[in-house]
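Appendix B, example 12.
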Amino acid sequence: MSERINTIVIGGGQAGLAVGYHLAKSAIPFVILEANRHIGDSWRNRWDTLRLFTLACYAGLDGMPFPAPARSFPTKDEMADYLRAYAAHFDLPVRTGVHVDRLWRGDGGYVLSARGKRYKAEQIVVATGARQRPWVPPFASGLDPDIVQMHSSAYRNPRQLRQGSVLVVGAGNSGSEIARELASHGRSVVLSGRNTGHAPFSIDGFLGRHLLCPLVEFVFYRVLTTDTKIGRRVRPFVISRGRPAIRVKLKDLAAAGVARVPRTAKISNGLPVLEDGRVLNPANVIWCTGFRPNLAWIDLPIIANEFEPIHERGLVKGSPGLYFVGLEFLYSVASGTVPGVSRDARYIADKIAARVESGYADA
């Protein structure tokens, strides 16, 4: 038995809720399917001390400001609470605990399955985020079983680890922040990975909060877009290489006592080996090696490369009625932030409304 709904939004995070807000304003019948048990769990299930890089004055979705001091950086739990309140305030039709495992064309539109149940829709918005699948290097399986290892997505706080030293693999934002936190709890910490660069100012300082962060938000939102030459030039690098460390700098790591070493190249005899040949013997390893896109469940010929589907500002060519929101640099660098995702959601919702009004003339 299948349930037919005009528009289905897959993903109930900030991207999906933002799309839902605008669809509701257009009176288009829709439902949001969220895999987690509760709205906001994608934020709540992160490490305990995580804070956003976006100021609270920019962290609110359309229609509802973020309830925190404007120049503060919200915690991950505050963001989770906000998303839950947002969905409730606008009475958005979110169904939680629904994990979509396949999407394909059929019956004059799209069909998706969610653990045995089928849904049919004329339009689908994939709002599951840019990268959902935790990634660790294949050689991680060779690590000595006595060494505690976990991906950063499973890390919450130092109490999860056994006594002894910690090797943090990956020197991006999560790796730098987790390494500094562990060192502040008295752990001997080694941070392995290439230097990703860092923001040239402190985002937590007065100038950062009041001048430089707003300036960066403007550049990310207005300048580095797919409509500008410079935006198109930097887009491939942003998508494939990620971003520099924002909050933690090399000097902060040094002050905390974190040792910086080259990349971890392999496992030999159960122990991590660095690119320079050094062998480490940590009690714990945290893989801060990022996430990869998870598009295998989409049974359609729309994959451009390992990082994204074929799309133009979220509209999938050759698949009318299929849209993406929440991708890295979908339209601008800011597409990965709340202000950017809000703009992308408005754009996609407008396209959906126009398509419905035209009677699916492009089908």
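The first strand starts at residue 2 and ends at 10. The domain at 2-132+293-357 is CATH 3.50.50.60 (FAD/NAD(P)-binding domain).
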